[in-house]
Amino acid sequence: EPEVTQTPSHQVTQMGQEVILRCVPISNHLYFYWYRQILGQKVEFLVSFYNNEISEKSEIFDDQFSVERPDGSNFTLKIRSTKLEDSAMYFCASGIGTGGVGYGYTFGSGTRLTVV
Amino acid sequence: AQTVTQSQPEMSVQEAETVTLSCTYDTSESDYYLFWYKQPPSRQMILVIRQEAYKQQNATENRFSVNFQKAAKSFSLKISDSQLGDAAMYFCAYRSAGDKIIFGKGTRLHILP
Q: Cβ of A42 and B106 within 8 Å?
């Protein structure tokens, strides 16, 4: 069964450093998403991406965050200057499109980001 | 704005018994989709079951079924013949025709051997 692949599975970074989280969505999917989950809390929407641009973003997704699909297969989330409160599990997801909205998304297995 | 509420932070059930997890939601939309996701200790998000709001028939996937009450905006998950591998965090989720999925805070399910 097709999978969404995220790398790395765990990343530790110093506060103030830039970090890039990588995702390879399912190949025929058109919609891409980032969510995050602070330990013990609910899963929160960050951003959705379609047709090479952001289609929706939450208030969490401030100027420190950016997304990119650099080569047609990878989908990345960059945090420019990490803060302690950015420590969380970050999930990438992809979806087939509005025609398949009833199918939800396929989530990756997540990247655990620890900011020290 | 749409909201999803799971009022049971934790639940326990004896192995082989049946358990029901509750979920309510609030929306002014008429066309939407509801999901239950499972998050085991590995923390991967796994889709368990989905329901289209326009369908009156409750969705069923093997031991998992839902009780969808559209007027009451209620979407509970029933797990029959509970197994040790069902132990996980369960998230109820909502999606309209727009993009994002909105999650509830989750219910942690313990299976007692």
A: yes
